[in-house]
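Progress note, project year one: complex with 0GY.
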Amino acid sequence: MDANYMPFHPNPSKPAYVPPPGAVDAHCHVFGPAAEFPYAPERKYTPCDASKAQLFALRDYLGFSRNVIVQATCHGKDNRALVDALKAANGLARGIATVGPDITHDELQVLHDAGVRGVRFNFVKRLVDKTPREVFIGIAEKIAKLGWHIVVYFEAHELEELLPFLNQLPTIIVVDHMGRPDVGKGVDHPDFQRFVNLMATNTNVWSKVTCPERLSEQGPPNYDDFVPFARKLVQLFPDRVLWGTDWPHPNMTTHVPDDGNLVDMIPRIAPSAEEQHKLLIANPMRLYWD
Ligand code: 0GY
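Model obtained:
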């Protein structure tokens, strides 16, 4: 791993909050192990290995039942570690892959059979080289035929420029980490308002209300400044929000999050049993398992 890379928490606390039976961790990754699944040559960082067995153990420990495993940029378009984890999960995991424009229908079908239900388009400059928009559109048209959706990762300052592109996509669009708002600006700032407006006007757009550990300036264990952002989206769009741990938390620079603390954020952003059921069960089951 990179010299300054912070590995995931070795012994997270047991959360006080108990997720309802059947809860889905809808954003997490597997990394390697590199000896079996080497990292991509074009990667921008080299993480600490984070295996499927460690992910499934954490799932059980935190009280979750299922995972949505998202292909991370350190594995590029080589989805072998993802597929290996999906197959080992016995139906309890679904995946989001990264593919190139030359992917064939047969190759997509193999991914589908393993449990992949979408692709990820990444716009975060520190993580990937730029992909032309027309390449993404071509991939979107191919994967739409399988009933898949698209996960997008961008930062708040990029949204205005991305809007026409996002509105052109033919599938459900799941935005990672609420479009990475600058929480110091507050929920009423035009940048976050732009994201709220996008969700209000384009009902294809969903959001992961994730990553207090990345977005909060106040930091652990309470991440108070993150709460109003996630709460607002859960309140306004209860049927289009997802929650996930983001384990194993690549590229953290400020601290190593305690996954137990992250789970304890859930009742603060979704206080009622009905909201929690939608966030943790009904929404991810509809999108990934139906
Ligand atoms: C995340 C966030 C990050 C990394 C990746 O694919 C990735 O490498 O998504 C990040 O560095 O912000 O969701 O894991």
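The mean pLDDT is 97.
The first strand starts at residue 24 and ends at 28.
No further modelling is planned for this target in the current period.
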